[in-house]
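S2.1 Query sequence (Pol protein)
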Amino acid sequence: MALRHEDALNMLRAEISFVVHARIGCEASIVGALHKVQAGWREMKKNQPEKLDKPMRCTLILCLFQEILSRVERLPTDEKALAEFKARGWISEDLNFWPALAWDGEQKKLLPVKSSPGLPTAVLVDHLKAVIRHCTGDYALSRFHPVRPISDAMTGESVVFLLQVGLASDSAMKLGLHLRALCMNSALQLCGCSLKPDRVSLGDSGMCYLGWLSWLSDAGVDAGVGEEEWAELLWLEAPSILGLALPGAETIDVSEPTFPSESSEHGENIEPGSADSLAGYSPSPAASPVVRRGFNLHVSEELQLERPEPENASECLALRALRDRWLWEEDLLCLTEHLPSSTRNFQRSTQGDYWSCSFLTGAFIHGVAAGVMNNSRRFEKVTALLAAVLRSVAPTAWFTSAGISLNIRSGVHRDSNNASNIHNVLVPASDFENGELWLEDSTGAHEMEGFLGRLVPVSRPFISFNPRVRHATSSWQGNRLVLIGYHVRNSEMLSPMDKTELRRLGFRVYDGRRP
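Output structure tokens follow.
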């Protein structure tokens, strides 16, 4: 169990923990400003606590990223800083690209890394604004504080800040995604900072486990354990000891943490009371497990994943997933923030504070007109990503078009422009309650808009249904995010060029064989 816990903690830390290195003594340093903000927050807490609307960790990170954004926007008019950044290669000559940086031990300086993706200016600004927007969300930020006290007169070259996002909230997932996109980007050097994921290392307990494994090996030989049995034990336990995950795991279950106290400065979960008494202890409710799910992507070999980097934030996120051949469900939710929403013929959801988004791409048929939607060209990487998800989940399905539906409730209808002999595919990409697919059925017990039907749970990995049968969306609770794959009718109306383009993006256009 200890081995498993070490492994689980390492994986969790790699997902939610970051480190900020802030230089001291340089002209661009943000440390002095953070100290003033920290002192002001403490003064207000002491004298006017009722005016505080956020904990210190949120106040500090807001100060940091608002200042970074401000300096990015002012850089074209700051001749000194602009000249320095161009000389170091930290920004392109046209001011439209910010590279990732890495420390060169021989030259003792940060250098651009051509093999790592940078960010176009428009995408960078989107990420910075998203961090500012989400860092104050519910349970989004668990920790942001320096490892040593900051002051007006600090010594040393830099100070380290520990940054940790929360779990089990939309804001936390989105904040983590945008922070990962900003890791090691040169723009943070405008404030003398660098951001990187917290490195998972082998702790003291891991070293003890290695010693234990060595002892066990000797004991196994003495006890006559065969090579096959010993190899199987190593296969099961060594990844945990070394801080790795066993290959092939597509679902990770972690325990939900106790949410930090909003009144604490750094997010530590400390309740008032003496050290030897439970008088001040307030137990948290039993936490339900958080299940992280993702898709192992089937990417078209014809798709070009090289540079240049996309200008749009959603395209940048999609490209990263395509390169990794992996997409987390919560990353797909974040991607919807930057997509245009077209909700024609649909009613927006009224599910509390949840928002709606509908996005379609691929082929279209309307009357005698047929072709490829503009979204397929404007959002090429997003289109390829949706096709890759559908092909990985339903590899034998035929589909010319794909869509994202986030908190969209459709009324009773038929898909008259879809092929009658090819079923639609519906892939759930979030956890929600109810939200079944209603299908017309004269023997069913559920009436909707005057028609009898039955409810079909939208279960993983996917469900399929006849598009010519009346169907609708039933009510739900939570964020209902689903992917849709469908095949247009009369696909022979598509030109050979359109079919070639669709197949390049990963769609499976029906070629006349029996579906």
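The two ends are 48 Å apart (CA to CA). DSSP finds 13 helices and 25 strands in the chain.
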